[in-house]
Amino acid sequence: MKLTPVRRAAVALLAAALLGPPPALAQLPTLGDAEMSTSAERRLGEKIARELYRDPDYIDDPVLVEYVRAIWEPLLQAARSRGELTSELDERFAWQVLLGKDRSVNAFALPGGWLGLHLGLVSVTTTRDELASVLAHELSHVTQRHISRLVNQEKRQAPLMIAAMILGALAARKNSDAANAVLSGSQAVAVQNQLNFSREMEREADRVGYGVLTQAGFDPAGFVSMFEKLQQASRLNDSGAYPYLRTHPMTTERSADLQARLQLTSRERTDVSSPAALEHALMAARARVLSSGGVDGQRALLSEAASLQAGAPSLRRAAALYAGSLAASRMRDTGLAVTYAQRLLDEQREVPAAARQARLLLAEVSLAGGRTERALTLLDAVSRSRPELLLRAQARLASGGASEVAQLLQSWVATQPRDAMAWQVLAAAYHSQGQTLRAVRAEAEAQVALLDYAAAVDRLKAAQDLMRRGAASGDHIEASIIDTRTRQVESLLREQALER
User: Fold this and answer.
1) Cis peptide upstream of residue 29 (ω within 30 degrees of 0)
2) Res 473: pLDDT
3) Structure pTM?
4) C-alpha angle with apex 337: 393 to 358, nearest 5 degrees?
């Protein structure tokens, strides 16, 4: 698909905004004599992350975020134990994975410890070990400072590389043709080829990532099986659904090296019928539904669930029921959604991890269909897991329990201040109670979590205006907090402006 004139103009405006005037480009970032500093790399990563947060494809799905994080955290810990993740990088970098509801098979490392992961990639993996192998590889690109090293190799073109990387990261997630159109006709054409990691860096990320994966307790066979999937896609002349192949070209040499490493590793292979494999099948099914935006895609998933045979393998059956239930809910067929989710729960009661996911799904589709009380009965009132917590908060808010929701989420955001969704639900609870001042501050904190400091300052100024007009008098503690946070966020905004 080619860029339309309107989109081309939008891209041009975005490029102008990101590139800025030539004199400013020459000063950003401060690279130093040897390499980009960790602070500069973190700032660059945040600049790109801000754009990703604003993208309509960005998704904060509590269920998938929790699942990915449960894989990501052991990898981080393994990298620390192996000495790959130094204390300086550990402290300065973000180490966050952002999900995109894009059907393409892609993942990418960004400066400053940010990673992007498309749901399309999650949906094609068959085990958690395969997904872990991709995350371990991308993590190793960051811990080995590959982006910084690339910039250092091309100091004269560094500012242009940085801008092209931002544009490429945004455009390539839509489709490869759009990314090529962004790059063609500009000086960034030559830069795009340099953005791809070198063969030596790919081999290093394979080697380090393999060690991190195994130390974290994942099956190294997942690295090889994921590699084989990508190689097969490469041989079939990838038509754009696998952007990962362009930035991470599959080679026979890399495949042979991984096979050799696997043969030297004596580990018990993951049982494809294990509870972990079953839970992953459900999460892959969820990713498939959330990345299938069109009606035809949802209908195909419904058809698959409807055609299930009694003797179908358990993994396939569970995945089809999960996908069918969620697709039915998105098609506003609550009855069918509840039926499929209940069948899944009944069949998986003896598998705790799968049963929990089925129960969450049943509560989710019940709430979406207006069956609030049923949703609440399925949710553990004392659970501190994020999916249950947020789903219960939304259900109680819908049933008039704003006071309980506020109390519940106040404790949560005190320890998880970067949880934008929790702040947004808390803001809705405060509005329901008529606590406008607290609601506006919660809205501001949600914007801070999304790195949009300008929007946060705007909300905080609105809260201060309410105080001046006496429209929210009496809450002196909250007023003091708002004044303090305004100064703090304004400082962050000034730092952000200096980067431009």
Assistant:
1) yes
2) 62
3) 0.85
4) 60
